[in-house]
Amino acid sequence: MPDLLHVLATRLQVAFDSVAGRTGVDPVIRLSEHADAQANGALALAKELGRNPREVAQAVLEACGSLENICSSVEVAGPGFLNLVLANGFLADELSKVAADARLGVGAVAARTVIIDYSAPNVAKEMHVGHLRTTVIGDALVRLMEHVGHRVTRENHIGDWGTPFGMLIEHLLDLGETKAADHLSLGDLDGFYKQARAKFDADDTFKDRARARVVSLQSGDAETRRLWKLLVDLSTKHFNVVYSSIGILLTDDDLMGESAYNDLLPQVITRLDALGLLRQSDGADVVFPPGYTNRDGDPLPLIVQKGQGGFNYATSDLACVIDRVERIGADLLLYVVGAPQTQHLSMVFDVARMAGWLKDPVEAVHVSFGSVLGPDRKMLKSRSGDPLKFIDLVTEAVARADEAVAAKNPDLPADERARVARMVGIGAVKYADLSTDRVRDYVFDWERMLSFDGNTAPYLQYAHARICSIFRRAGIDRSTIASVAISIVEPQERELALRILGFESAVFDTIERYSPHRLCTYLHELATAFTAFYEHCPVLKADDVTRASRLALCDLTARVMNRGLGLLGIDTPEQM
């Protein structure tokens, strides 16, 4: 929260230090529904000093000096809490500062160089619902971290290398380049892959050709590389269609496939060996990071080179760490990857630390997430039993949203309805994902996510549109309202003001925890506070001074709502 908690925290810090007779005691300041701010550091300090907590709290209050310009009341409560109720005039002043700030009170940070690894589809396979969470969560984190000033590099670590490409290239040659390109351009990547796999499993001659083709690919044969590049390019076009359909920031410039690290793989082995970390286990080169055991209690190795000399995901992931730290100079690596990869990534990070590739202040964080489940609480699938295609999910979301918007506002012109339906449908899918604590699984429920009630994107979007409609009905240009002074009188105005002033805290809390659901919760609470305000505090029918103040409060609410949803990658229509 801009200024007001900083002012209180600074004043209380000085007071605590004074009472303690030293520095470094941190009071705990937080907003609550019952008191605007509460400091409970007095309890810890009292225990430390061996004094009565209420006496210590009172001493802190006296050391604070006058708070009358900040608080309307200050009291010692319970066993030694300090309850501070912020003055309405102080809140109004803070709102004015936020309204005049293009960033709406969200300050910038000391910039870090951040790599965010997300989405990661596979070449020659269509994106499906399994890619939803990594793509949506990763994209929201990119927007949030860029907004507060971090230097962010997006990396789409696509699966574009390895043994499957032998069979895929041979199948492409069997079909003929033109026919294969037409086949893939129509979007049937899964069909192409399944045909190649069926031939590989059923035909030994084809299997031998595929294996030989892998050798050619890895040895750099020019014609094989050309055919491989054709597969990658056709697949990338499909990825881009999906990304543009749902408003994801990833572009071709963000592609960093497994192939990009191919030349680094031998270096990983050489450097680990030079550090004395390599061990032999069942013919493979491995590293034993401490603390990992198998079911029998034996040390668990991270295999970095197979017995036949081949590399694997661990080798590639270690090469990624080297590249991201040493070439790009990143000091924060975020891996938006599903929870099943927790142990694998933990071992990779630990081996990288053992090798000195990850050392303070560089951090590597696994931003894990649960699964998207169907009504049966199993992995969400299409009617055919296959994973639900991402593009089909988007199409259905927009179609369902169109019906919902038509029912909500049948007078909306068709072209405007189509535009709004796209915002609502895509927003509903994203928000249903982002509003769930990312570590949990969630059940995909069309009816719930498209509802105009509850903690959903349509509810928030409608709240924003309703604010915009106030100005349309009044015939007022919102830009003329932003500088109007806001006064706080009614309890609902006060509650809305406190919610607005909590925007910065919500943004940084979300970033610190890498958890977009924290910002979703804040936005829902903001919309709920606005609804209560709108129901209890007449806006257009109020007297001129009150009317102007409340219009300014409405405008600021809409701006925060728009900015907050935008940081989640969700658009806000002005009418619905």
SSE inventory with pairings:
Blueprint: H1 4-20, E1 29-30, E2 37-39, H2 41-49, H3 53-64, E3 71-77, E4 81-86, H4 88-99, E5 113-117, H5 132-147, E6 151-155, H6 164-175, H7 177-185, H8 189-202, H9 204-219, H10 222-246, H11 265-274, E7 279-281, E8 284-287, E9 302-305, H12 313-327, E10 332-336, H13 342-354, E11 363-367, E12 372-373, H14 390-408, H15 414-434, E13 442-443, H16 446-449, H17 457-474, H18 491-501, H19 503-513, H20 517-536, H21 544-567
Parallel strand pairs: 5-6, 5-10, 10-11, 12-13
Antiparallel strand pairs: 1-2, 2-4, 3-4, 7-8, 8-9
Helix pairs in contact: 1-3, 2-3, 4-18, 6-7, 6-8, 6-9, 6-10, 8-9, 11-12, 12-13, 14-15, 17-20, 17-21, 18-20, 18-21, 19-20, 20-21
Distance between the termini: 31 Å
**How much helix, percentage-wise, in residues?**
40-55%
User: Superfamily at the CATH H level of the largest domain?
Assistant: Isoleucyl-tRNA Synthetase, Domain 1
Helical run tally: 21
Give a short account of the largest sheet.
4 strands, antiparallel
The counted number of beta strands is 13
Count of the separate structural domains: 4
Question: Order of strands across the biggest sheet?
Answer: 1-2-4-3
- Nearest-integer average pLDDT: 90
Low-confidence stretches: 25-35
CATH architecture annotation name of the largest domain:
Orthogonal Bundle
Q: What is the general shape? A: globular
CATH class of the largest domain: Mainly Alpha
By secondary-structure content and strand pairing, the structural class works out as: alpha/beta
Beta-strand percentage? 5-15%
Give Rg in angstroms.
Answer: 28 Å
